[in-house]
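Running low. Invent one:
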Amino acid sequence: MLKAQLAVMGFAVMLLPLVGCAPNPTRIDPKPVPVGNYASMTCGELTTLHNVDLRSLRSNDAEQRATRRSDAWGVLLIGLPVGRMAGGNRADRIAELKGELVAIDSTFAAHHCSGTLLGQAD
């Protein structure tokens, strides 16, 4: 009996990467965002928008990490990615925010704005 339980646990652990846990936020690529969306903005507006998006990215990043932890425990204990099933996956929003930050940063540089923007997208 114990041998069978260990075999099932070993099999479950081997399947863990295949079940589909929420992706690591650092491995989410930016979604392409047209730089033209920001071309008419001033340096001050770009800085403000950058800071708003950066705060939102950090918040979504934290939620995504919590979802990953929930998924890992859920898969280990019951075989289901409970974090994603509960709607916790923020991958699409993280990709959008990273893309917006890239476009804002590019526009900031193209406008020859003085200063630097705080933080960058991963």
Residues 42-122 form one domain. The mean pLDDT is 84.
